[in-house]
Amino acid sequence: MAKMPGFVKGLQITARTGLQTMFPDGLRKPIPAPTRGAVTVQYPHEKEAPPDRARGVIALKEDNCTACMLCSRSCPDWCIYIEGHKVKAPPRRAGGKPRNVNKLDRFDIDFALCMYCGICVEVCPFDALFWSPEYEYSEPRIADLLHDKTRLGEWFETVPDFEPYEAGSEQKVKKVPR
Ligand code: SF4
Ligand code: SF4
Questions:
Q1: Rg (CA), the chain
Q2: Which ligand is nearest to the CA of 149?
Q3: 76 alpha carbon to ligand 1 midpoint, in Å?
Q4: Atom of ligand 1 nearest to the CA of 119
Q5: What is the pLDDT of residue 120?
Q6: Residue 150's domain is classified under what CATH number?
Q7: Which of 68, 41, 56 has its CA nearest to residue 136?
Q8: Most buried one in 39, 56, 58, 70, CB count within 10 A?
Q9: β 80-89/57-60 pair status
Q10: Which of 70, 103, 120 most suits a substitution to test ligand 2, by most atoms within 8 Å of the C-beta?
Q11: pLDDT digits (tens, 9 = 90+) for 42-73
Q12: Residue 124 belongs to what domain range?
């Protein structure tokens, strides 16, 4: 059988999906879905609750951040800006040498550039970044979509606790450190 050109296949899928949307019960019961009323809501007069694990905004737990820059270097949009400096910290054990640790001076995320891919949250080795389902932070000025560490820290209060894993799962259940 001759191979179907890609664009014909694409049109076929589009037509099928369109028909399924218009006639969810199939063509034997041709009652168009729009007659049942709109499935959208009139935001902001009506609001829908997003799922707990929705990618609304990124929250920072500053105490966990070591300014290692891994998230910033992994971000495909280069929209995480971190600055820090070294400080001396007490030794881990009695008699040991004082340690050099990074102190975070700046941690900004520009949500005007962020594409919500979640890579930064995944790569952070110190559990310092979390998703919050909050999404109402639009701004009249695009520059105000740059959230600094104070603002990112405030989002942390809205991070939901992890649900327990399914029975039989061997993964350790991690809790959001509060
Ligand atoms: S979600 Fe993706 S684009 Fe947004 S800050 Fe994180 S890595 Fe960058
Ligand atoms: S948020 Fe995580 S990955 Fe990013 S600098 Fe802090 S510790 Fe490193």
A1: 24
A2: 2
A3: 7
A4: 7
A5: 97
A6: 3.30.70.20
A7: 56
A8: 58
A9: unpaired
A10: 70
A11: 999 999 889 888 999 999 999 999 999 999 99
A12: 57-80+108-158
CA angle at 28 for the pair 24 and 33, rounded to the nearest 5°: 30
Confidence of residue 22 (pLDDT cuts 50, 70, 90): confident
CA-CA distances (angstroms) from residue 148 to 80, 115, 126, 136, 156? 10, 18, 19, 17, 13
The answer to whether residue 103 sits within a structural domain is no
pLDDT digits (tens, 9 = 90+) for 85-130: 999 988 888 888 888 999 999 999 999 999 999 999 999 999 999 9
* Residue nearest ligand 1's atom 7 by CA: 75
Residue identifier of the C-alpha nearest atom 3 of ligand 2: 124
Mean pLDDT taken over the chain? 87
Task: Considering every ligand atom shown, identify the ligand nearest to the alpha carbon of residue 63 and give its number.
Answer: 2
CA 175 vs CA 53, 77, 130, 172: distances in Å: 14, 29, 11, 10
Q: Ligand 2: which of 61, 62, 68, 122 to mutate, judged by most atoms within 8 Å of the beta carbon?
A: 68
This prediction has a pTM of: 0.75
The count of domains in the chain is 1
What pLDDT does residue 26 have? 72
